[in-house]
Design brief:
By secondary structure, the protein is α+β, with helices and mostly antiparallel strands. It has 3 helices and 6 strands; from the N terminus they run E-E-E-H-E-E-E-H-H. The protein has a 6-stranded mixed sheet with strand order 1-6-5-4-2-3, with helices on both faces. Helix 2 (about 75-85) runs parallel beside helix 3. About 20% of the residues are buried.
């Protein structure tokens, strides 16, 4: 896997379109990505620890910062998680967003997906 400009800060959340995948390290990310069939998708959204948006280009096997969305919001991360969460995993609530940092939201999401 190649990284254009900079590497995302781990842990990361990857939205495959059907499910979310969490990876705590670069090695774990690359291992999990190789197991997924992206069915011709051009780009796959990635959210890093600081909620910065990255894109995975599966056919070219590289990751780059995303231009359209620079940073995810707390509410949008929670909404994405609730839409794609597995059936046996609890829903994430939007309460106390002001008291939690973006890093905490991403970390909680990764913990719930693990």
């Amino acid at each position: 896997m190649n990284y254009l400009l900079r590497t995302p800060k781990f842990p990361v959340i990857v939205d495959t379109g059907d499910q979310l995948i969490a990876a705590r390290t670069k090695a774990q990310f690359e291992k999990r990505i190789r197991k997924i069939s992206f069915n011709g998708k051009d780009t796959v959204p990635i959210i890093d620890r600081t909620a910065e948006a990255f894109a995975l280009y599966p056919e070219k096997e590289f990751v780059a910062p995303q231009v359209a969305i620079r940073r995810w919001t707390k509410a949008s991360i929670i909404d994405l998680y609730n839409e794609r969460r597995p059936a046996n995993v609890p829903e994430m609530e939007k309460r106390s967003l002001g008291n939690r940092s973006l890093e905490q939201i991403v970390s909680e999401t990764v913990d719930l997906l693990a």
